Amino acid sequence: MGCLLETETLYGTDVAATILDAAHELDATAIVFTPRSANRWLKLLSGDVERKLLSQADRPLVVLPRSDQET
């Protein structure tokens, strides 16, 4: 039994909305992402993408841990 994995490079001003729209258009069975580390001010200014995905996704989310290099 195999698993088909597709990746896309997306561009948009609202990152969460762009990801959710693409998932809908591609009829994705899940959304997989690694959250960026950001302080509260950065999240406030840029929008909390992780929170938007968690609250607005209509399909399963798989959150991967950040690697040691990204901390």
From TrEMBL:
Name of one Pfam family that matches: Usp
Residue ranges occupied by any UspA domain in the UniProt entry: 7-65
Gene3D superfamilies (alphabetical): HUPs
Family annotation (InterPro entries): Rossmann-like_a/b/a_fold (IPR014729), UspA (IPR006016)
Alphabetized SUPFAM superfamilies for the sequence: Adenine nucleotide alpha hydrolases-like (SSF52402)
Protein name: UspA domain-containing protein
Provenance organism: Natrinema limicola JCM 13563
